[in-house]
Amino acid sequence: MKERRFEDKIVLVTGGNSGIGKATALAFAAEGATVVIAARRENLGNEVVETIKQKGGDAEFIRTDVTEPEQVEALFAAIGERHGRLNHAFNNAGTSVMIRRTANATLEEWDTIMKTNLRGIWLCMKYEIPMIRKEGGGCIVNNSSILGVRCNDGLSIYSAGKHAILGLTKAAALEVAHRKVRVNAVCPGFIETAMSQKIFDHNPAAKDALIFTIPIGRLGKPEEIAGAVLTLCSDDAAFITGKEVVIAGGHGIRP
Ligand code: NDP
Fold first, then answer.
1. Nearest CA to ligand 1 atom 22
2. pLDDT value of residue 219
3. Among 46, 89, 179, 233, which residue's beta carbon has the most beta carbons within 10 A?
4. Cα separation of 47 and 234, whole Å?
5. How far is CA 99 from the centre of its chain?
6. What is the pLDDT of residue 1?
7. Which residue minimizes the CA distance to atom 10 of ligand 1?
8. Residue 201 within a domain
9. Residue 210: inside a domain, yes or no?
């Protein structure tokens, strides 16, 4: 019998219509949470909601572009109106662009990545912190990356944003620890999702080259990140805040 650690909890998952976010939304719902999924593609969001409902869970999709401040504000207003509260949040929405070195990247690429991956997380936290505080505590998990703690040739803007997420996570954790709001980050290694597939489509040899760097010998599964996010939000992690958890199959152990 599956544990139901999130019974009666309202949980937000940004980017919950695909990949890591979808796996996490399904996992929270399976453990009793009412899940709010926020992303742009409505058809995919509605499909995840339908899957959750078919399994006896509860979820809704609220179309949100995290790069648009007024849409983020409207998301949290809707959560307040419909659910009256928020207990946990997984700030996961993110994007990547084709591999490009620092000197070749464009202003547009910088803005797209930073507005989605970094500013989007900060904007969501701006509303999540007071709402979770009001409930007497809860947890925020931000999705950084293995590229938040290491660097790869050609992904400097993405890496800069993912490193900055860890700074934001730790500083915010300090601010609200005494209010029982815990703020942590996950740093996934290379996970099989639409995002990584885009890179492999562009450069098929990259997959085997990457797997070679992973001691466990395979890419990760979205469910393996979801498991860590749920643990961080559960009472099992009640003394963990301001930390990044690297989930990468051992990638990075070797110097
Ligand atoms: P996916 O492409 O499957 O998921 C990306 C998600 O982000 C989608 O749900 C997408 O929904 C959402 N999203 C993108 N832009 C926006 C936006 N402007 N507003 C709202 N939602 C948005 O890839 P992953 O599951 O792999 O990526 C999820 C997170 O995991 C990202 O932050 C990524 O950087 C991180 N990550 C992924 C790794 C991997 O190897 N796959 C490794 C390390 C970290 P929609 O397009 O409908 O808006």
1. 93
2. 97
3. 89
4. 26
5. 21
6. 65
7. 15
8. no
9. no
